[in-house]
Design brief:
Blueprint (H helix, E strand, L loop, with lengths): L14 E5 L4 H12 L3 E6 L6 H8 L5 E5 L5 H15 L4 E4 L14 H26 L4 E6 L12 H21 L4 E8 L6 H6 L2 H10 L8 H12 L10 E4 L3 H4 L12
Parallel strand pairs: 1-2, 1-4, 2-3, 4-5, 5-6, 6-7
Length: 268
């Protein structure tokens, strides 16, 4: 599915950074921002994820840069922000998408495993947002935090990721209040399972995917473009008076059942 509603040049003159932008949902968001005219920087822990996406971004006629770094490491974060801002002359849009996850029942989840996901998803979101704040407040800007639906009801095997994403949702609201006077909008986007992503490949079985399609009120799993389209809306002036909101993009799946993913690992 292509994003057909976007007005050409919707984000012309905007400078964006997407963490986790080399693959999956965040790659789709980076391409959507570039397709709307924004210059886009992407960051990832693994450099091999970056080069192909940078080429695809540049093919859309915008400037694009890539920086390898870990959002858990403040020095890496400072380098990512500085390199992107130097390349584009500033920063207007930040998408916090770097994340990690795996399935593990809480009874056997190690403290290190729990902490690692919290460090990447929650602390990483804070680290990058804090580092970007001085740039975003120059002429007002947008932060979009990629959340999830795991925390909306109980999802077995996801205690670590659900706790981290609940923290991201709370951080989104707090930053919206604190940074609104600087004309920085802070919103969240909460996808459910998304077809074509590493998370769905690793965390679901074919039977679970069939169950998701059957349970979803709109009759199918989300595509990457479904999520990228909403990200584009929230990053654009079409959402100029929207802040502090985490918008669920899952076709209504979470309203029907929160237990499709990970139901087989419940218990101790």
């Amino acid at each position: 599915m292509a994003i057909t509603w976007c007005r050409p040049g919707l984000l012309h003159g905007k400078r964006a950074l997407v963490t986790g932008g080399g693959t999956g949902i965040c790659r789709g968001i980076a391409l959507a921002l570039a397709g709307a005219g924004a210059d886009v920087g992407i960051a990832s822990r693994r450099e091999e994820h970056l080069a192909p996406t940078v080429r695809d971004l540049q093919a859309l006629g915008v400037a694009a840069v890539a920086v390898a770094g870990d959002v858990r490491v403040p020095a890496d974060v400072d380098r990512i922000i500085a390199h992107t801002a130097d390349a584009f002359g500033g920063l207007d849009i930040l998408v916090n998408g770097a994340a990690g996850n795996f399935v593990a029942p809480a009874a056997v989840l190690s403290p290190n495993g729990f902490g690692t996901v919290v460090d990447i998803d929650l602390k990483g979101t804070f680290n990058v947002s804090r580092a970007a704040f001085p740039l975003l407040k120059v002429r007002g800007g947008v932060i979009l935090n990629i959340s999830a639906t795991l925390q909306l009801l109980g999802t077995a095997g996801q205690a670590h990721a659900a706790a981290a994403k609940a923290g991201v949702d709370s951080l989104t609201r707090t930053l919206a209040v604190e940074w609104g006077p600087s004309q920085i909008r802070v919103n969240g986007l909460a996808p459910g399972p998304v077809d074509g992503t590493e998370g769905v490949r690793r965390l679901t079985t074919p039977e679970m995917r069939t169950a998701i399609d059957a349970a979803c009120p709109l009759g199918r799993m989300a595509a990457i473009d479904d999520v990228a389209s909403v990200a584009l809306f929230l990053c654009s002036d079409a959402a100029a008076f929207v802040t502090g909101v985490t918008l669920v993009v899952d076709g209504g799946l979470w309203l029907h059942s929160a237990r499709t993913l990970g139901a087989d690992v419940a218990g101790g």
